[in-house]
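Could you join me in thinking about how sequence relates to backbone shape in a protein? Would you write everything just below, so we can both look at the same thing?
***
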Amino acid sequence: MRDISYNRSAQHFSCDPAVIEKSHQRSSAYGLDQHDKPDIMPLDRSSLSLLLEQNRVLHAHALPVMETLYEQIVNTHNMVILTDAHGVIVHALGDDDFLVKANRVALNPGVTWSEQSKGTNAIGTAIAEGVPTTVHADAHYLSANHFLTCSAAPIFDYQGNILGVLDVSGDRGSYHKHTMALVRMSAQMIENQLFTAAFENAVTLHFHSRPEFIGTLVEGIACFTPGGRFLSANRSAMFQLGLSQAALQSHTFSSLFGLPLSTLFDHYRTAAPGLLNLCLHSGVKVYARAELRLSNSVFQHYSELPSLPAAAVPKVAPRRLSSLRYLNTGDPHMATLIGKLDKVIGRDIPILITGETGTGKELLAQAIHNDSPRKNNAFVAVNCASIPETLIESELFGYEEGAFTGARKKGGQGKLLQANGGTLFLDEIGDMPLSLQARLLRVLQERVVTPLGSTKAIPVNLAVICATNRNLRELIAANLFREDLYYRLNGLVVKLPALRERSDLDVIVDRLLAEAGNEGRCCSVAPDIMELFRRHSWPGNFRQLSNLLRTAVVMAGEDGLIRLEHLPDDFLEDVQAEPPLAVAAVSTDGAGSLEGLAQAAVRSAYEACGGNVSATAKALGVSRNTVYRKLNLR
């Protein structure tokens, strides 16, 4: 166990010459030469899937923090990177203009950035030293990495062991002295989230000498058993208490804060409990609030206590996950689609989303809205296929009092007006009646809405996103959809790939499991079941997969491993009825080997891209060097 202190992690956060010199010596001892070409080969698909599964909890807590960090450094020629405890990249977010350079040294998932592999670099050296580290330009051991500037901070678990590393890497010309501060704060935010999630059946105390700092990164967090025995504390708590993790193991809630734990329970029995006033063993006064996440058995242990009010367990506000970068999970088709959307967001260009049922069209529309300048205004979704034809006009345009029999007094505001200033999402636009298509076209052209029964035109300012699983051109040919409306709606048309066409199934399953297990249950999928998932055609796409996993999580119970017996019978019947995936014959010298298959796949993509190496690399989600090597082009 690493015995860390709050001060220790704050000491070495610059390009310290002594730290760099020690790292260079280690790099030389590993047998590396400064002019070596770095190993940029990522893990194979199965190993990468295993890596993601092993780091699922870390990834789930780190992702929203990474997205927030990236928003602060966007367009600065940088990228945000998360690695595991060994320096293997788990996830990365980056500026498009820097990704080309990053591909030269493989800052991609599955690539190792330990000192043993890459010599002195911020990620590997932060792991070796156990402290935040900046490595700038020529301080990198390998000359191939001299164009980089990197700032990395280790992420520790509640026992003081390194779980992973958070890093910002960019072009050496983009170096900024504040980058490390952002990385350190973000790493600590991840640590605090992991810390509180690690103790489900416990009393968690959040405290600080200044009440305004409770709920911030600098708050102390300490966990205790229902009986008051100390479990663990974060770095800020150890700093405030003046004790190491090892020294705290002999303490209780009472010995640290001078009160019996029952006083805390009494406090939360009141109707509106405020902050607690506590006194540390050192005499320093602090303010505190507690989370009492206790099981029923614990309440029986405290049988003299009445039920605790709901206020004792603060509700966590839902996190806004729906953003384009959250949806970019490694599939080349999705990366291309998101790249197109990034260029038109906020430019008053209508977007039409096509794709099969269940591919996540509304989720994509919500993500577009959340990333747009209109994100603080309403996102109004209308399913044109689910509203009866007799009501859809009043639903969209609203109505005045007495406009029709049964109309409410004072009338009703339509969806178009509700979306004023925000985004209107028209799902299944192909099912909109022809008579309404003409009125919608007029609204889009004139930007005014006239409610039913009214003569007053009301100006509106809204963005329009439409979606359909139908072929609108065929509907136009059959006179079921207006051609002029079609061309008014399709400023940018994007097609969401079906689940069976995507290469990021492992990441998708991981995300859906994290959502399904938000009650504290942590589940994973057995390797043989993942193979079944890869074989299945998923006719219901995300909707089918999500429902299946939600049920399987419940069926798996406390075991947490989803196996064959946890899957529904209809799914198993469908999988058994499907033919096995065909593997194309390989007519190379390496036929039958994994390397031969890889070379054949790259050559096929290279030919499909017209001999364009960059396009091939982008389509396959690999670096250009990988394409050159597989095809022996150099």
Q: What stands out?
A: Residues 242 and 282 are 8 Å apart (CA to CA). The longest strand covers residues 162-171. The chain has a mean pLDDT of 80.
